[in-house]
Amino acid sequence: LPQEFELARPVLQTIEQAGYEAYFVGGSVRDTILGKSIHDVDIATSAYPNEIKALFKRTVDTGIEHGTVMILDHGTGYETTTFRSESTYTDFRRPDQVTFVRSLAEDLKRRDFTINALAMRENGEVIDLFDGLSDLQNQQIRAVGNAQERFHEDALRMMRAVRFASQLDFTIVPDTLAAITAHAQLLDKIAVERTQVELLKLLTGKTPQRGLTDMLATGLWQYCPDFADHETALQELATALTQGVSSETAAWTLLVTKFGLTATAITPFMKHWKTANQMINAVQTTSKTAALLGQGDLNAWQLYQCGAPLIATANEIAVILGAPDRLATLTDRLAALPIQHKKELAVTGKDLMQAGIQPGPQLGAILGDLEYQVVTGAVANKRADLVAQAMI
Ligand code: ATP
Ligand code: MG
Questions:
Q1: What is the maximal distance between C-alpha atoms in the chain?
Q2: Which tens digits make up the pLDDT trace of 351-365?
Q3: At residue 46, what are phi and psi to the nearest 5 degrees?
Q4: Residue 145, ligand 1, Cβ within 6 A
Q5: What was the ipTM of the complex prediction?
Q6: Could you say which architecture CATH assigns to the domain 1-138?
Q7: Which of 90, 107, 188, 246 has the CB geometry, 3.0–4.6 Å to 83, for a possible disulfide?
């Protein structure tokens, strides 16, 4: 058992000694069997939330209405969820009602894919009610039960299927793939934020070309915000992603570049995807810099404007698009610039006002010009020199 499970064993033992059942479930069981590292340990139990809370000194109600309580043990938090069955999905997402049950089988039945419906006892014994082990062995993604019904219940599962195909390099079995094709349109009903999470996991996964090919084959792509006109670009993106990308910023940058979006088009596009402003700003910078790298090298000012935190991403995308890898020299040149950031400029607006320059938009323009002159080496980054330069 991995270290994370070993550490969690006493938690499961405490629950069992009180007469309830407790199992490791979800992604951590799947990833352990695959020999991959795991990030969080999920526990499923027959104990009700109040019963769990009575057993442990320190718990947090992280999602008590869904039956989830976090148990804090030796500095680690364990999400512990009461076995539940879900019923009557009327809006193609999330169940109308969560019913706590005492049966593990009921709980596993509501899970999305067979590889995600495995449970593991505290001693490592695996409970496999839906042939998840053989699907893991054969590297297959298969819906638990009737695929048509499962995607009709919760349309997000379709995006989860293509994201796992990418992350695990697995094949979606024909029956499950056909059900996605039949229900792709229901993705419309899902909050964009949730679709975005799955898309990014797909794009930053191990074999994104696989997940994207599945999105294209099933028609899921058509129900993603602002994707409608970009079928060819998505095919090209799939090819470009054969080597994978190292971050979400890189993924977005490659996507907007392949879509041929201009700087003005990038912001509304990403806003439709409900992306954070910080990510939009980063992608504006990296896409612009990657395009410049595609045309040749960067001058000092262009390099400075991109900045150290984003230069590796810009270079990564430029390389994917066919430019030579210039990361080492770009990093060295960046480090050798007189300043790395506006705040390192040896003069402030206050200094300039004291020297007699009037406040207002003009002051900002003068500061911007001084910044440019320092970066390009025209003026030394010394206060006296800069004030003198400003007075010219
Ligand atoms: P990851 O490694 O990305 O965390 P995961 O399989 O653990 O993958 P989670 O979103 O953390 O995915 O969900 C934990 C478990 O809950 C899943 O393994 C699955 O059993 C179940 N699950 C999650 N989302 C759904 C869903 N939409 N429908 C059915 N079961 C789901
Ligand atoms: Mg998980």
A1: 84
A2: 999 999 999 999 999
A3: -80, -15
A4: no
A5: 0.99
A6: 2-Layer Sandwich (3.30)
A7: 107
